[in-house]
Design brief:
Blueprint lengths: L1 H28 L21
Length: 50
């Protein structure tokens, strides 16, 4: 009976750990970057004075 209880507890702990890891990975994927999204190159539009 002790082995069965240990197996059930380790399976439950593994499932909880896998679920927490998946939520952590999803949170990292959906995180917004710290840097602003500014273009590296800008072009003059017609009508701007030179």
């Amino acid at each position: 009976m002790n082995r069965l209880l240990a197996a059930a507890l380790s399976a439950a702990l593994g499932a909880a750990l896998a679920g927490a890891a998946s939520f952590g990975v999803l949170a990292l994927i959906n995180a917004t970057p710290d840097q602003p999204n500014t273009p590296l190159v800008t072009f003059e539009t017609p009508g701007q004075g030179r």
